[in-house]
Amino acid sequence: MKKRNLHAFRIVHMSLFYVVCVGLALLSEYYDLQLIYGLTFSFTSIFLFLLLLTYGLWPGIIGALVVYTVSVFQFHEPMIDLINVLEIAFLGVILNARRNMLLLWDGVYWIVLGIPLMVITYYFYYQSLSMESTLIITTVATNGLFNALIAEMVDRYVPQGFRGIVGKSDDQGIPFGQVLFHFSITAVAMPYLIFVLMNSWNLDKAITNSTHQQAMNTMNSMKEELNKWGNRDIRGIRLVSKLQIGYLNELVSKHTTGNLFQIVITDSQNRILAGNDPHSLEKTHYDWRADSITIKLGETFYEKIPQKHSIIMPTEEWREAQYIYNDMLTRIPLQIYIIMPIQNYRIQIYEQFLAQLSYLLLFIIGSSLTSVFINRAIARNLSQLALTTTGLVDKIYYRKEMEWPNSRIVEIKSLVDNFRHTSHKLLLMYHDSLEMNKKLQEQTSMLLSSEEKLQHLAYYDVLTGLPNRLLLSKHLEELLIMENQMRLPIAVIFADLNQFKQINDTLGHAIGDNLLQTIANKYSKLTSNDCQVFRFGGDEFVFVLEGAEESELLEVTNGIFSSFAEPIELQEMKMYVSVSLGVSLYPRDGQDLNTIFKNADMAMYVAKEQGGNAVYFFNPELNKLVTEKMLLDNGIREALKHEQFQLHYQPKIDTAQQTICGLEALIRWQHPELGFIPPTKFIPLAEDSGMILEIDKWVLQEACKHNKLWQDRGLPKVPVAVNISGKHFYQGNLFEVIRRVLTETGLQAQYLIVEITEGVLIKNVDQVLETIMKIKDIGVQISIDDFGTGYSSLNQLQRMPIYQVKLDRSFISNVATDTKKSAIVKAVIELAHSMNLKVVAEGIETSEEMNYFVQLGCDELQGYYYSKPVPFETFAKLLEKRDRFVLEKGEI
What we know:
The structure is a single chain. Helices cover 58% and strands 15% of the residues. By secondary structure, it is α/β, with parallel strands linked by helices. The protein has four domains: 173 residues, Arp2/3 complex 21 kDa subunit ARPC3, CATH 1.10.1760.20; 216 residues, Beta-Lactamase (2-Layer Sandwich); 166 residues, Alpha-Beta Plaits; 251 residues, TIM Barrel. The strands form five sheets. It has an eight-stranded mixed barrel, surrounded by five helices. The chain is rod-shaped and about 200 Å long. Keywords: Membrane, Transmembrane, Transmembrane helix. This is EAL domain-containing protein.
């Protein structure tokens, strides 16, 4: 709609501009510029040229025909109008093909067609070429060229906004040479033309004044003589006496000089009495206004122009034009007419005017040659520079040789040097770009050739080759869209390896990576069209079952567990690995991807907390467990601040004496809202959050303080064992903490045993060894807790200043009946004794277990068979009965 309105707006303005140009052309034709004695200067063709330049051939010709047809009927000069119409037609044909250089082609028209046609016409009509004809031809041609110059300048230099309004949106620019040419021609032609016009007008005025003065002097002289006549002469005039008429003729002859003017004397009724004008004497009455146009130049002075029109000579009527001066005598009833033919002055004026126009043409030719010379010096160099720099990029691309102009003008020379330097830089840049493009093409080829590989890397795990987390999300999103329509369930199983971090830390990442690859191969064998496996990250894998029925789900989970029934052999090392599974079902357990993932992950962690090698299905109760976990995590700090933690102590029994030889400090938490919270719940949380460091410091402080209090009461002095997290060894200040606690509590170092897990000995061995050596040097004993569950080597054990090792509970139960366990326990005890290490068996719950380890020569026993962990005061009673412990253990 907007484009349509804009188009209509332009059509209206173009039509209005066309009508205005035609109207101005008609006005210019009617109100032409009068020079002198029939010579005129018209601006009509300026507007017709603009029509040609704006609208093209036919609109321009139609406008010219309208204007000059009206002119023929109005002014009766068909030849000049025909020449002008031919000029418009000729230029229209030329400019229709190339719409520039109007002045040049107009000059060609006058030289080739316009002037020759006028010369032939005048020669054919008058049988000769007079000075007057030459002047007419020169004036008309000069008029046409001047109008072409003005029209070309208007078309070239009109503002772009106005050009757009009239439909000329092309803006090709103006060559500098053309601007220089216009300036040169205009600078010469315009002032000189104004001078010619002013000179012609001044000359006409001078001739008129001179003629008027001469006629007035003659009139005064004649009136002076006639005023001397007496009454007799006056009566003779009234009676038309021949005598008085003869006197009048003598008076006319006396005051007439050559052919400069004639005199006619009439009576009051305009009857001719005397005179020497042959045309007037042929008549009886003198009517000087008949068949002519009279122009009053003074009170009694007129210009008389006969009403004659020539179809080829516009100055024809001026050949018989006259100045008329008349006056009436007061005493004598006579009127005197002094007639001065303009022809006497016209030829002289025409010759002078022709000379001036010739000079004008010579000056124009001279200025044109000057502009050409300057153009060669300036514009030619600029044009050559423009031509050289046109398509500069292509020339550089095809390595074409460029010809740079040479100029002595400083500015142009500097401009050429700048362009030459720029082109050289562009050439260097182009060569660099070719090299870069070549490299880019090579890289593009490499990228294209590896597109499939990149696609594989984007959606598949590099280590295992299984689909990765990104492809899992995409696959599940597609399934959710499809299953929403079919309403079939989807099962998501999170499978997480148990103790993988410990394996990775103790055996190294290479072994861990090999283990993941082996497990991925096992999982891949469980896949089918409806069951896909993905690596979620780390040691977590995800199984996705489409349309999961209960039987299929059990088959997959059992298959996963079966994959770990046999030990995995890696680098000549066999290891048993277990897995924890968490299951979430769509749409039962969630309506979106994130919820399903979260619930499956939550269920998997519950399975892991249940001891691993188990599967757990998500249920809403898990949210409560997670909430409880968060509550515990946040409550650990509060427990330290508000003394919610307590220490319980479990005795260690000397195997040979069956008396208390030591004790282990065990932390307990009585939560104000949740009640008793076992260590198995909050210790892992404290490990993850880092609060275990503060808890261990508190336990160490309390255990040493309590042991010192018992000793101060006179109770037997036995060492207290405190479990220390491996994180202390990586903080670098465990030694300072122990020394400070011993100093503050006053407990001797020999009554403190620091228990560390076997895994601490594997990671950062040198740092751990340095810390243990410092602790050992001050007298504190070192014990390895849960010995046999880690992956420490004998070489590492023999380097450590260890006091004792504690067998894990997993080796104690059913040891008497399990031959494999029995063999392992015997070997460990014998190995420890060979290394001068004491052995503690913890978790003794039956007399059979107690007797078995006594027979094996185990140094110390610990477990519920003797006593459960008890508070501070209760354990003090145990110490009081130390020597009677076995006999009275049933009292505890």
